[in-house]
Specification:
about 210 residues, six-stranded mixed β-barrel
Length: about 210
């Protein structure tokens, strides 16, 4: 029974990962040295590689890059009355759109989050690198004591972000969508290296 349960939670579709059955995940890239073909490197994908090779895929209905900061939780702070409240949270940096030509937002396309208030960061904010953030219900309650926090500010890693949406808490079994804060990847350093082939991103491809 334990084996069956583990298999189901890792393969079955459930919110917000409702399209697992037709989603491909590209997580690792291998690069060889140009001169001797012997210097081999394995890592996550660089953002330039995702933009050049994954976004234009004709067989895909939707594509996005995701940077999961799972190993380095960040401090989130807000000023409530005379207190400065801080908590430690995990974040995901992700694209605003799955294939821009579709005009459908990442948080509502492959992943279907339940918004309690507000909505995802806008395309204009994503393109311009405006620091908007979507936070989970638990984070909102911990920081402000309410989930009605759209339009309020918080500090993530000592940088001010505007809260544009609040979503229901996500199960940790949602391995790609789970986080406590979601921000556009345009507000952070790409972290790319080795000519943009290697980097810190993975890629989700929704098949037609």
């Amino acid at each position: 029974m334990v084996i069956v349960i583990l298999y189901v939670v890792n393969t079955a579709s459930f919110k917000p990962e409702v399209n697992r059955g037709r989603t491909c995940y590209i997580t690792t890239v291998m690069s060889n040295g140009k001169d001797d073909n012997r210097r081999i490197s394995y890592s996550s994908l660089g953002l330039p590689l995702v933009k050049e090779c994954c976004y234009p895929l004709k067989g895909a209905e939707a594509v996005t890059a995701i940077n999961m900061d799972r190993y380095r939780p960040l401090i989130i702070a807000c000023a409530r009355t005379v207190l400065l409240l801080t908590i430690t949270c995990y974040i995901i940096c992700l694209g605003s759109y799955f294939l821009n030509k579709l005009g459908t937002h990442v948080l509502k396309r492959i992943f279907q989050f339940d918004f309690l208030q507000g909505g995802p960061f806008s395309p204009a904010a994503f393109t311009s690198g405006i620091r908007d953030a979507v936070i989970s219900e638990s984070v909102a309650l911990a920081l402000f004591g309410t989930d009605q926090v759209v339009g309020r500010e918080m500090k993530l890693d000592f940088i001010v972000y505007n809260i544009c949406g609040v979503v229901k808490d996500v199960s940790r079994f949602a391995s790609k969508a789970w986080a406590e804060v979601w921000i556009p990847y345009t507000v952070r350093d790409d972290g790319g290296y080795q000519e943009g082939i290697n980097g810190s991103y993975s890629c989700c491809v929704l098949l037609k």
